[in-house]
Amino acid sequence: RSSDLFKAFARKFFARGFEVLGVSLDEPEQGRKLDKFIRENNMSWPQIYDGRFWNGAVNSEYAVHSIPRSFLIDGTTGEILAEDDELKGDGLDRALEKVYSKSAAQ
């Protein structure tokens, strides 16, 4: 499962300052169901859920028109470093290795 691959990857990079923010597009009144899913899948990172489904602020800000949608964002500048297909499979690992090797060289 891709979520298992992601969790293994995240453990590798959390120690290097990598952070994850999940955004749920669940419908109104689904908060309890989402909480249960998060617990059952050991998702220890913060999750945004406003119950606004496709009308949420994050969707508008990042032009989310389909899910899943993935972004690698520089937490200091807000710059989008990679997104979607660039982050599938081992793409996220490659993208972060590039980011961290670049910052180590500076």
Compose a concise summary of this entry:
With 106 residues, the protein is α+β, with helices and mostly antiparallel strands. The chain is 41% helix and 10% strand.
Helix content: 40-55%
Order of helices and strands: HEHEHEEH
**Helix-strand makeup class:** alpha+beta
Task: State mean pLDDT (0 to 100 scale).
Answer: 81
> What best-fitting shape do the alpha-carbon axes yield?
globular
Q: Could you tell me the strand content as a percent range?
A: 5-15%
Structure, described:
By secondary structure, this protein is an alpha+beta fold. 41% of the residues lie in helices and 10% in strands. It has 4 helices and 4 strands. The protein has helices at 2-14, 31-40, 57-61, 91-105; strands at residues 22-23, 47-48, 71-73, 80-83. The strands form 2 sheets. A two-stranded parallel sheet has the order 1-2. A two-stranded antiparallel sheet has the order 3-4. Helix 2 (31-40) links the parallel strand 1 (22-23) and strand 2. The longest helix is centred in the last third of the chain and has 15 residues, at 91-105.
Please write out the topology.
Elements: H1 2-14, E1 22-23, H2 31-40, E2 47-48, H3 57-61, E3 71-73, E4 80-83, H4 91-105
Parallel strand pairs: 1-2
Antiparallel strand pairs: 3-4
Write a concise keyword list for the protein shown above.
about 110 residues; alpha+beta; two-stranded parallel ribbon
